[in-house]
Design brief:
Elements (H helix, E strand, L loop, with lengths): L1 E5 L3 H17 L4 E6 L6 H9 L4 E2 L3 H7 L8 H6 L2 H10 L4 E3 L4 E4 L4 H15 L2 E4 L3 E7 L2 E6 L2 E5 L1 E4 L14 H8 L4 E7 L3 E2 L3 H5 L4 E11 L13 E9 L3 E3 L1 H12 L6 E6 L6 H14 L5 H5 L5 H10 L12 H13 E3 L3 E2 L7 E6 L17 E3 L13 H19 L2
Parallel strand pairs: 1-2, 1-10, 2-6, 10-20
Antiparallel strand pairs: 3-5, 4-5, 7-8, 8-9, 11-19, 12-15, 12-18, 13-14, 13-16, 14-15, 16-17
Helix pairs in contact: 1-6, 1-14, 2-6, 10-13
This protein binds flavin-adenine dinucleotide.
């Protein structure tokens, strides 16, 4: 049996290892080949997590599913077979010791993404898979019960094909979305692709002036823009707590990137509103009463100085200036300025005009419709023998190791079932 896997990323290498291992276990005469256009395997693993590779998240399957929103339940069966704990165990057994950070992110103890990539590549090769580098697949077609893969230097036939060619994010890595065209030619629906986990563009002049200011513990929320004549929604479309960064073009950091997918999913940034809670541990009432008490008890204290107990000085100065409270003491603070400052602290509006696009998106939202893929096997419901795994699927999760976990789990069961069938 010939199994060909297109793309040697996290999903493809994992699929190759499990397919080769399953063929060997069944003593089936087989050839498992991975075709990769880059001259290196696992390019995105190498660059991931700032070259440290956040390979999964320290949580149960439910925590992983939550990170994928509506698509999360598609991962249920794959995560039941290969949950985060099994990924950690697998990499440990491959010689990659891991550590969990306080955020729950799991990294190799060596902090070297190279160790993760090398271990996975070795795992696939030792299981019996061949990894061919520098080979670009141009198209995939069916030929009776088989598949024909066309490449510049000839064709290859396969009994099973596993497509793990990734999405459109970071196209400089080779991921330019060719897989969507192949899937369309097989009759699959491609849910409109869009950048996700992407830095946002926008902001007022004062926000750009504080470019480089980082906040460790804030909460970003995306709201539906109120329609004319209708009341604003009481609940946000999505909220994410964590770190944030003001940039010269807009906003970045985990919270901004996590909520970016909801903004791009709306199609037009004007359809949503982004706000930042600078003091998520304090309620609106607590902030208001803090202002009142400070006016009564600390009238001579500068407002900016007091705010630096909570937020960095540059941000405290900027929001005070914007609220009309620059250099004021609490005694001098007007009611209007106090209300605006309180509102900035709890719901700072962050204008968004766009994103940095696929060039800077860590993942692709949209992709092969999940309805057309069997979640127990990752086999296409339309084309027997065709398996689809990893980022090419309509799945995008938060920052934190969730996306590699999804690629590993879906790749694992795709490889296993491709080998067990027939
Ligand atoms: C900068 C950055 C940092 C990231 N950090 C993290 C992190 O720390 N943790 C995390 O969970 N996620 C992270 N991600 C997301 C993660 O990299 C992806 O979710 C993951 O790589 C998807 O795996 P995949 O195997 O589906 O696709 P990919 O890793 O994209 O692999 C697809 C492979 O297919 C190959 N290919 C494509 N077309 C063809 C073709 N025509 N012929 C042959 N080969 C082809 C590509 O060259 C590529 O090697 C990061 C992403 C980026 C861009």
């Amino acid at each position: 049996m010939n199994i060909v896997i297109v793309g040697a990323g996290a999903a493809g290498l994992m699929a190759a290892a499990t397919a080769a291992a399953a063929c060997r276990e069944r003593a089936v005469e087989s050839r498992v080949v991975v075709l990769e256009k880059n001259r290196k395997a696992g390019v995105k693993i190498l660059m991931s997590g700032g070259t440290r590779c956040n390979l999964t998240h320290d949580c149960g399957p439910a925590g992983i599913m939550e990170a994928f929103g509506n698509g999360g339940s598609f991962l249920r069966q794959a995560l039941a077979i290969l949950p985060p704990a099994a990924i950690v165990q697998l990499f440990n057994s491959l010689g990659v010791a891991t550590q969990v950070e306080s955020t729950g992110k799991v990294f190799p103890t060596s902090n070297r993404a190279l160790d993760v990539r090398d271990a996975l590549l070795r795992y696939a090769i030792e299981a019996g898979a061949e990894v061919k580098l520098g080979v670009t697949v141009k198209s995939i077609e069916t030929a009776g019960q088989q598949f024909v893969l066309r490449m510049d230097d000839g064709d290859m036939t396969a009994d099973r094909v596993i497509v793990t060619s990734g999405g459109r994010s970071y196209p400089g890595c080779g991921t330019i979305g060719e897989g969507y065209g192949w899937m369309k030619s097989f009759g699959h629906t491609i849910v409109q692709t869009r950048p996700a986990l992407v830095p946002l563009v926008g902001g007022e002049a004062w926000m750009h002036e504080i470019s480089g200011v980082t906040l460790d513990h804030v909460c970003a929320s995306v709201w539906s823009a109120p329609e004319p004549g209708k009341k604003a929604d009481k609940r946000p479309l999505m909220s994410r707590p964590g770190g944030f960064l003001f940039t010269h073009l807009g906003y970045s950091g985990p919270t901004a990137m996590d909520v970016s997918g909801v903004i791009t999913a709306a199609g037009d940034p004007a359809k949503t509103r982004l706000t930042l809670d600078l003091v998520p541990d304090k309620s609106v009432v607590e902030v208001e009463s803090w202002f009142e008490k400070s006016r009564q008890r600390e009238g001579s204290r500068k407002v900016v100085a007091a705010l630096t107990d909570w937020i960095p000085r540059r941000l405290a100065e900027a929001i005070s200036l914007d609220a009309g409270a620059s250099d004021s003491t609490f005694a001098e603070l007007s009611r209007t300025a106090m209300t605006k400052l309180g509102s900035h602290l709890k719901r700072l509006p962050l204008p968004v005009t766009g994103t940095r696009g696929f060039e800077k998106a860590e993942v692709t939202g949209g992709g092969v419709s999940l309805r057309e893929v069997d979640p127990r096997t990752m086999q296409s419901r339309l084309v027997p023998g065709l398996f689809i795994a990893g980022e090419i699927l309509d799945l995008d999760g938060w920052i934190g190791g969730y996306n590699f976990q999804s690629a590993f789990s879906t790749g694992y069961i795709a490889g296993h079932h491709a080998a067990m069938q027939g």
